[in-house]
Amino acid sequence: MASEELLALENGQQANGNLKAGSGKEIRHGRTAHNMSSSSLRKKSDLKLVSKVPCGRLRQLLANLQEVILGTKLSVLFPAIPLAIVAEYCNFGRSWIFALSLLGLTPLAERVSFLTEQIALYTGPTVGGLLNATCGNATELIIALFALYKRKIHVVKSSLLGSILSNLLLVLGTSLFCGGLANLKKEQKFDRKQADVNSLLLLLGLLCHMLPLVFRYASGPEILTADPTLQLSRASSIIMLLAYIAYLFFQLKTHRQLFEAQEEDHDGDDVGSDETAVIGFWSAFTWLAGMTAVIALLSEYVVGTIEAASDSWGISVNFISIILLPIVGNAAEHAGAIIFAFKNKLDISLGVALGSATQIAMFVVPLNVIVAWIMGVNMDLDFKLLETGTLVLTIIVTAFALQDGTSHYMKGFVLLLCYTAIGACFFVIKTPLNQTNVLESSLGGALAA
């Protein structure tokens, strides 16, 4: 009897009849590349021991714990979360708090994707797609908002720029490189339609990022152009958010067939085949709220200890923000994209890399500018010459690599070399964070006066 109750729990005992009756096609239709990528790191939970617990509520709680905490291959990193909290309250080394917080964020990012997918099984693909569009890069967004709250605008810009570079060069490059080596005797092809849409949006975002920089250089001294540059950045941010809303309508309504994950190949793996919820709707919602709160706590630790980690490790804040934060924050999603490239499913890998880069560039960055405007913080879209130059070259190189709809390992290798060169550049550059904050504070005071 207990096993039957547990089976009902596994299949989502809180689901209504609509979920079970004929909604499989609708759910499958709503699965995106992000969902598929994250699911590659999940593992099925063995609930035999839980089924022997006599109390029904306790049995359900333990089953949820096993599905949420132990249902990922990254569960070994969860102990880093309490260790980071203990390190903070026991005043351990600040660099240890930074490192443990980064490690703790890695499984949390994957679990947020899992929980949003569970909620989508009850709400349908459109609402699920909207959840994925807002929570897909929750880690970067929360870290950026905390850095913004602490007036560390340079960290905000660097971390978001690093996320775009990481997705376009590191994730995509590794996927194409590994996929090409694993499928040397096969011609690797992908659907150009989705890549073209994302490339077009990235170019629009690049234009909006470049205009404040070009305007500043064309108009004279920075102290005189600070206010017009800020106004131009806010206007550009509104334009980018409007474009992203149109992109969501395009993706979720009119042309959703271009973005749905291809699941026709079930070659022995379980990935992408689970179409029933393993936890209830309210349980998933509660877990999502709780994990978002933990991500916020660890993000506060990361932002508060980044300078100490920079001093302790002898690495510039630029390098930590642009290279380390994006790699660790999206490790689960990145690993999934590479796994699918090995399986010659490049559409999923491209969906992850290009989709995340587009979401950061067209949603997270302008949203931070608008939130800063509301908070009275003067954040603009001027990422400075070096950072903007790397973004320009990255988008151009990526667009050229994807223009013919085919792939081989050489394309991936070139993208990886580009990322290595950029990483070396930011490793040797030493931009003191204090000087940046002082400059921003002086500009803010001049504008207020």
From TrEMBL:
Belongs to the Ca(2+):cation antiporter (CaCA) (TC 2.A.19) family. Cation/proton exchanger (CAX) subfamily. Vacuolar cation/proton exchanger (CAX). Translocates Ca(2+) and other metal ions into vacuoles using the proton gradient formed by H(+)-ATPase and H(+)-pyrophosphatase. This is Vacuolar cation/proton exchanger. It comes from Nelumbo nucifera (Sacred lotus). It holds the Pfam family Na_Ca_ex. GO terms for molecular function: calcium:proton antiporter activity. GO terms for biological process: calcium ion transmembrane transport; intracellular calcium ion homeostasis; intracellular manganese ion homeostasis; intracellular zinc ion homeostasis; lithium ion transport; phosphate ion homeostasis; regulation of stomatal movement. It is found in: Vacuole membrane. Residues 96-252, 284-421 form the Sodium/calcium exchanger membrane region domain. It is a multi-pass membrane protein. InterPro entries: CaH_exchang (IPR004713), CAX-like (IPR004798), NaCa_Exmemb (IPR004837), NCX_ion-bd_dom_sf (IPR044880). It comes from the Eukaryota. Coiled coil: none annotated. The chain crosses the membrane at residues 127-148, 160-182, 197-218, 230-250, 279-303, 315-342, 348-373, 385-403, 409-429. Residues 15-39 are annotated as: Disordered. Keywords: Antiport, Calcium, Calcium transport, Ion transport, Membrane, Transmembrane, Transmembrane helix, Transport, Vacuole. One of its GO terms (cellular component) is calcium:proton antiporter complex.
